[in-house]
Structures are given as C-alpha cells and as structure tokens.
Amino acid sequence: MTQETGKPCGEFLEARDKSGNTITVFQYGEDTIPAMKGLLDIMNPQQHMPQLREMEARDDDIVVCAPVKAGTHWVWEILTMLTRGTTEYATGPKEDTMLEFRSVDKLNALTSPRVLNTHLRLSNLPKQLIEKKCKLIFVVRNPKDTVVSMYNHMSAKGSAFAYKGSFDEFISMFMSEVVPHNQWTRYMTGWEHDLAFNSDIPRHIIYYEDLKQNPFHEIKKLASYLNVTCTDAFVDDMVEKCSFVNLKEGKTNRPDNKRWQFMYRKGEVGDWKTWFTVAQNEVFDEYLTKEMEHSKFNFKYTI
Ligand code: A3P
Q1: 125 near 148, Cβ under 8 Å?
Q2: How far apart are alpha carbons 216 and 225 in whole angstroms?
Q3: Which of 81, 128, 190, 279 is the most buried (most CB within 10 A)?
Q4: Is 193 annotated as catalytic?
Q5: Which has the closest alpha carbon to 150: 129, 132, 172, 135?
Q6: What pLDDT, on the 0 to 100 scale, is given for residue 42?
Q7: What domains are there in the chain, each with its CATH number?
C-alpha cells in the first residue's frame, strides 16, 4: 500500500520451491500475478491493474472467475457458444479476453457480448462489473488434479514459466506462501468468503468434475443461468464440439492458436493418482485439511 493513497501499488517477488527454482511474480493487493519475461513484455502490471479497476463494464458482460487450471478454457468456449448462439469455435483464444493480461484498450475493443475471464480476486476486478451486476461464473476443480495440471503447464515446452523443478519440488512451492498466480487455498477460501458476503453478485458455480461427468446437464444449467434458450440438439452439438479431443483439435489447428496447444493436456478427473506418491498424498491431505477447514466446497477426486 502507498501511505498517501492507501491503494495497493504492487511489488515484484520470487516464488521459490524447496530446491531454489524461482518464478518472478507481481503481488498486487490480494493477487499474485506471474511476471516473467515474456508475459511482462505484453504489459506493465503496475500500470495495468489500476486501469483495469476503473475499466468500463457493459451490462451484458459475463466473467469466468477461476483458479488456474480449473478448466477455464473449456468453460469459456462453452460460454462463447451459448452467448453467440453457435457451435462454431470462437476464432480467438481465451487469452484475448483475460483481464490481467490484456490492455484495457484491447478489452474495450472486444465485441459484445464479452465473455471475460480472470484468475484475479474480487477486490481487483473492474468495479463496474460488480456495480452493474454482471454475471459471474466461478469454476471449481479438485486441488490434486489442479496441482498436477499446474506443474505440467509451468514446465511445458512453450510455457513462459519455463519451470525446471520436479513434481515434488513443485508441490512444495504450491504449499508455500508466495506462488505463481495466487496461492490456491487462499484464493479459494477468499472467493468463498467474498461471494458469501456479497450476496447480490449474480454467480453460478460449476465443478470441472460435474462438467466432465454430465456435460449436457451442466451446459443446460449454464444456459438457464444466462437466460439463453437452446434446443437439446444444440446442446448435444456443443457437448460433441467441446469434448476434450474435439476442443483441442478444433481450437489449436488454427495458426494463431497453435501456441496454446499445451493448455489442453489430458482433460481427465483423477489423473493425480498417477502423479502423487503415497507420502506426497499424505502431506497434501494434511495441508488441505488444515487450510480448507472452513470451506464448503465439495471437491470430487474421482468420478
Ligand atoms: P489437465 O492439465 O489436467 O489436462 P485452464 O483452462 O483453466 O488452464 O485448465 C486447463 C485444464 O483443463 C487442463 O487440464 C486441460 O487439459 C483441461 N481441459 C481443457 N479443455 C478440456 C475439455 N474439453 N474437457 C476436459 N478438460 C479440459
């Protein structure tokens, strides 16, 4: 915070695993944003975050709020299909509508209805999104599949994170104070608190595992929340187009979207069982029990 204004001004920190592998992050108020070279070249977060807070919202904006690796790309694609009334894939990537990584000018240039998306906390979202009661969709995924997905994302070829540590070292960073892109338990409990204490914010909570298990039903619920009328045949077609294999192929065969291929890795529930050792699982369970003690989220580790 600055003493004069009381507003967060932000600072650069190092997220560090137990072997000393580091990732540079930008801490701004309640949020931690990755800030490695490559991402920082896109934008200066010190300038961007205050501008974002003042950004003009539109009545028909909808916002996907999700912790990293919860299935944001998947839900975003479904929402763009529902709001545009077509089962064609959106031509651009989800990243083009991401609040923390796109300039306000670029966000302003998007055509309505906008499906915005973010990993930020409520306190850093554009104020008008809340004032105008724009619809919010919050995505939940079990933390074990999430940490596996994060590790693979951050160490993938083509990922700006270029993380070099092992899975074990990554878990140690996940459970530490400073992490790339928001500390997961704090993010989840923080949002849970914010939603409970802001009951007038329109919200729909969707679980990755439910969407995987029964996509037709979950898409119908999303349509109803958005007041979109669609036939069963349309929803059937969406289910087909948004299956893991079809979405990966359909989105990343375009030259401008190829670089995002690593975002679509395996798309399963329970892959964590092939990654965690018994010992890691015990430590992780103990950590979650303590950190999520008061949470009402009902995580599903298998379907
Ligand atoms: P995995 O790494 O476990 O495969 P996000 O979009 O928030 O970055 O989340 C990415 C995760 O969602 C990845 O998980 C990715 O494979 C998965 N995903 C993307 N599209 C999907 C789909 N159509 N069905 C199921 N999972 C999907």
Answers
A1: no
A2: 14
A3: 81
A4: no
A5: 172
A6: 60
A7: 11-291 (3.40.50.300)
pLDDT greater than 70 at residue 7: no
Probe ligand 1: pick from 64, 72, 74, max atoms within 8 Å of CB?
Answer: 74
Q: How far is the CA of 70 from the centre of ligand 1 (A)?
A: 7
Confidence category of residue 1, pLDDT binned at 50, 70, 90: very low
Is the model's pLDDT at 38 over the cut of 90? no
Q: Which two tokens stand for residue 61?
A: 């904006």
Two tokens, residue 210: 């439910």
For residue range 98-122, list pLDDT tens digits in order: 999 999 999 999 999 999 999 999 9
What separation in Å is there between the alpha carbon of 97 and the centre of ligand 1? 17
Compute the distance between CA of residue 221 and CA of residue 235 in angstroms, rounded to an integer: 11
Query: Quick check: 3 pLDDT over 50?
Result: no
Q: Which tokens go with 46?
A: 């010190």
Q: For ligand 1, what atom is nearest to the CA of residue 152?
A: 2
Averaged pLDDT of the chain:
92
Alpha helix (H) residue ranges in 16-142 = 45-53, 72-84, 104-108, 127-131
**Interval between CA 102 and ligand 1 midpoint (Å):** 21
HSE on the CB side for 97, CA within 13 Å?
24
Structure tokens at 23: 């990732």
142/256: higher pLDDT? 142
